[in-house]
Amino acid sequence: MKMYLISDNIDTQIGMRLAGIEGCVAHSPEHIEAEIKKAVSNPEIGILILTEKAGAAVKDYLNNLKLTLHTPLIIEIPDRHGSRDIADSINSLVQESIGLKL
């Protein structure tokens, strides 16, 4: 099972490549969506990683995939320009998922 990165900047892609994770850089929503389609159609990819900016560009499409696909696992990560507070992000995900406020 492989991991694949779709990033909005070259720095994150290079860092992940040094860790052995292949990926691509995409800037426009159309290009990001095309790369996601290519990744989810590859049965070898078990985890699809997107930077938060790339994920935000195709948020509705990504949410639909998360609800309908069993594989790959789709996760969003902050990059060097990341603005999300991780604790707030986890709290909001738990609240949205099961309705509990932590």
Labels describing this entry:
4-stranded parallel beta sheet; 102 residues; globular; alpha/beta; 5 helices; single chain
Structure described in brief:
The protein is an alpha/beta fold and 102 residues long. 49% of the residues lie in helices and 22% in strands.
3D structure, described in words:
The protein has 102 residues and is of the alpha/beta class. It has helices at residues 10-18, 29-40, 52-57, 59-68, 86-98, and strands at residues 2-7, 22-25, 45-51, 73-77. The chain has a 4-stranded parallel sheet with strand order 2-1-3-4, sandwiched between helices. The longest helix is centred in the last third of the chain and has 13 residues, at 86-98.
Structural class: alpha/beta
Strands side by side in the biggest sheet: 2-1-3-4
Distance between the termini: 33 Å
Judging from the principal axes of the Cα atoms, what is the shape?
globular
Quickly count the helices. Answer: 5
Helix fraction by DSSP (H/I, runs of at least 4): 40-55%
Mean pLDDT: 84
Task: Describe how the helices and strands are arranged.
Blueprint: E1 2-7, H1 10-18, E2 22-25, H2 29-40, E3 45-51, H3 52-57, H4 59-68, E4 73-77, H5 86-98
Parallel strand pairs: 1-2, 1-3, 3-4
